[in-house]
């Protein structure tokens, strides 16, 4: 069974905003996006066997990125961190309500929302925020 990570995208308003923020933080022609966290996941090997980082945006799981690696990084004034490496591609998923939490959590593949296929009626019919609101109201 696939193991994933889930994390709140603090301060992020939309998928477009997340893409813009991640692009601004990439250095050079980096092929991966880095996210720094204090602790290295103990289940790193399982996570790299097809796992993704699922991002919670405005109270809904909205997007995922495939995990590609973990590194230990030392910052002179901050100490040691774990750099979570993810593919640059943001894959929208069916919005699923999720409460906020601190840090990241393990997230079972069986609980993960399905990807929204590019060009699908659901992906193109309405903005993700509207789709999420309708789903929360039980109308989707």
SSE topology:
Layout (H helix, E strand, L loop, with lengths): L2 E6 L6 H11 L6 E6 L6 H4 L4 E6 L2 E16 L3 E9 L3 E7 L6 E5 L12 H5 L2 H9 L4
Parallel strand pairs: 1-3
Antiparallel strand pairs: 1-7, 2-5, 3-4, 4-5, 4-6
What are the main properties of this structure?
alpha+beta, single chain, 140 residues, globular, 4 helices
Describe the overall structure:
With about 140 residues, this protein is of the alpha+beta class. It has one domain (about 5-135). About 20% of the residues lie in helices and about 40% in strands. It contains 4 helices and 7 strands. Strands 1, 2, 3, 4, 5, 6 and 7 form a 7-stranded mixed sheet that branches. A hairpin with a 3-residue loop joins strand 4 (about 60-75) and strand 5 (about 80-85). The radius of gyration is 15 Å and the shape is globular. The model has no long low-confidence stretch (mean pLDDT about 85).
Number of helices: 4
Q: Classify the beta-strand content into a percent band.
A: 35-45%
Give the total of domains: 1
Alpha-carbon Rg, integer: 15 Å
Number of E strands: 7
What is the string of helix and strand elements?
EHEHEEEEEHH
3D shape: globular
Q: Quick one: biggest sheet?
A: 7 strands, mixed
Q: Which structural class fits the helix and strand makeup?
A: alpha+beta
What is the average of the pLDDT values?
86
Unreliable stretches: none
First-residue to last-residue Cα separation: 28 Å
């Amino acid at each position: 069974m696939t193991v994933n990570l889930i994390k709140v995208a603090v301060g992020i308003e939309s998928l477009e905003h997340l893409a813009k923020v991640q692009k601004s933080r990439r250095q050079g022609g980096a092929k991966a996006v880095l996210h720094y966290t204090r602790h290295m996941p103990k289940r790193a090997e399982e996570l790299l066997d097809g796992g993704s980082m699922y991002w919670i945006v405005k109270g809904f799981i909205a997007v995922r990125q495939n995990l590609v690696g973990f590194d230990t990084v030392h910052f002179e004034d901050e100490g040691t961190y774990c750099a979570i490496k993810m593919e640059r591609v943001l894959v929208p998923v069916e919005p699923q309500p999720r409460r906020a939490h601190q840090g990241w959590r393990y997230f079972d593949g069986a609980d993960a929302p399905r990807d929204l296929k590019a060009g699908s009626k659901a992906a193109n019919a309405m903005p993700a925020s509207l789709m999420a609101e309708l789903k929360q109201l039980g109308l989707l």
